[in-house]
């Protein structure tokens, strides 16, 4: 028996499976991630179906390179919880030269960052805790600012548009930075604090590419894996990496929402006035939650609840608030931030 045969199989927490396909015809380079959060399994299932189609010949890559990572955080998946040691979709950056990775997710990031560096486009497949419909999240409009400079907003918007979700949400990093300032009593957050809000898509944009996060539905929604599978096909078609679908109709324009605020949970006794679902519409003045001391939190304007989390820990995000955006994904986005 050889040394390799004697060696026991590596535990799942130490193995990152990466599947790569390269067509002979050059073209775009797309990477698809699933399982960035361990309890979000729809992306893994959507990738598995696509892998089976490619292996069987039912789906053919015509040009470019396709890389798929079914479980981007194996430890979190083995534990079937959101995180292993921390949130993989925060502080997504390689370990600095001469330093040691601080935790499990940092070691995984050191493997994933070079993969993203080698690609043009990222599709990151997720799901969410509360009830609600699938939606896509995109980054900033073209800008030369310091928070997240970007010049590929139109391409990113086109990808989000073609994924077929009824809603697309913009404005994540702006509101994350505003939330940090809010917790610090109005003092602007420094770069190290803002870096913790940067995930896979923000890293992809910083490397000259673009990326979309697709929230495929609630964690246990039986339709979520199909949403993920369709999205992979839609991205491949849009990029010309697989054949066009002659029966496909042009994608309908989704409702575009812009995040405008985040509210933290201050106490375990803070409570919602009812069980909210992502994208529940609220009117100005409508009660949303009640603080431990009895103060009612009401909507300051007409808008939508996003990512309500009744189990949020004190000092963390309780819910986000969004309003309708005037941006049209079918047209090149205007530069500058709204």
UniProtKB/TrEMBL annotation:
InterPro entries membership: AspA/AstE_fam, AstE_AspA_cat
Cross-referenced SUPFAM superfamilies: Zn-dependent exopeptidases
Pfam families associated with the record: AstE_AspA_cat
Keywords: Hydrolase, Metal-binding, Zinc
Domain of life, source organism: Bacteria
Chain ranges of the Succinylglutamate desuccinylase/Aspartoacylase catalytic domain: 26-127
Cofactor(s) the protein needs: Zn(2+)
Keyword field contains Zinc: yes
Protein name: M14 family metallopeptidase
Organism: Variovorax defluvii
